[in-house]
Amino acid sequence: MGAPPQHLITTILGDYWIGRPEQLPSAALVRLAGEFGVSAVAARAALSRLTRRDLLESAKSGRRTYYRLTDRAAAVMLEGRQRIMSFGLEQGDWDGTWVMAAFSVSEEQRDLRHALRARLRWLGFAPLYDGLWVSPTADADRAAAVLAELEIPMATIFRAEALAFPGMRAPQDAWDFGQLRHTYERFLAQHSPLLERVRNGAVSASEALVARTGIMDTWRTFPNHDPGLPAELLPADWPRAAARDLFVEVYDTLGPLAEFRVKQIVAEFEPGLAELVAHHRTGSILAFS
Fold it and tell me: What is the domain count for the chain?
């Protein structure tokens, strides 16, 4: 599927082992990564790097090494997946107000500019102008917290209604609707054949694990491009709902088969831990929020 080994390993742990205090043997995680074409050397290197980044904690038992997500990493993943799983759901009526973040960061502070932009995109903002980012859905308090955390000295958060004047940009022009539509339509075209095979029961357990992780990896990127723009701002026949329906059906339907494959692999190394492997459905994740 092409995902970096570190990202792949945390995704697998987040999908089938999140919230568990027990640790999984490194050999099982290496084998799981191997299902995706990752070499044993690359997988072990990824485990070491994740540990150094404080995303995994490790322990030794004899000659074996065991890993689990750190509490901090698990908390971040739980928060993130709430947004990922709720993305594309129908929303209530929009009140017409925009949250705006205005800031100034010097060109010399490139790392800070990059970090700020990435965090604002995750919150649902897009740049109307270089130093003016807008969102119809963002939480102003969370945006202010990000600016404070990154110690942006010249910044302001405010709410406003847009006034329409000829020749002037509207706030929604911060998004490229043509490109967004193409992204959704490409997702639908790419995964529709898989959906048909899922419905026909033509997917093996090993393929289910890879396909389920792959479609999650793609779906998780959509909130970075589309903050859940309100229906009032969207062009006609917008494909987001169809894309969500496809994602949910594939992800949920393949869950039991993918879980079975993870259990098979873990059982090769620690049979007692295999029964603790569990998948999650989109509905159960949303109910937990």
Answer: 1
